[in-house]
Amino acid sequence: MAAAPKVDFADRVSVANGILIGNFAKVVGLKQNALFSWLRQNGILMAFGARKNVPRQQYINAGYFTVKEVVLDDENGYQIRLTPQLTGKGQQWVNSQLLDAGLLKPVAIG
């Protein structure tokens, strides 16, 4: 019976709207820059240019990421910034990838 609340939590996370990648890094105990670097090195986020740190389309299509457009007004005029977020499904998937890569340790339940 102890697994039921954990399963319920996992189900709720899987349908959550999204979390910034830096906040997810804090939750799982990694440094933000280390997680971004790992995601780029593994081809999940783009590594160069104006779209650096934007998820590749296949991972957006899989439902792991969303990208929010933010319009900034500064001395150079309006600029559009793209902000990637992990969906609930993406949090579970990235967590699994990090466990497989040995960057996270499994948590004992019970």
UniProtKB/TrEMBL annotation:
It comes from the Bacteria. One of its GO terms (molecular function) is DNA binding. Residues 2-99 form the Antirepressor protein C-terminal domain. This is Putative antirepressor. It comes from Escherichia coli.
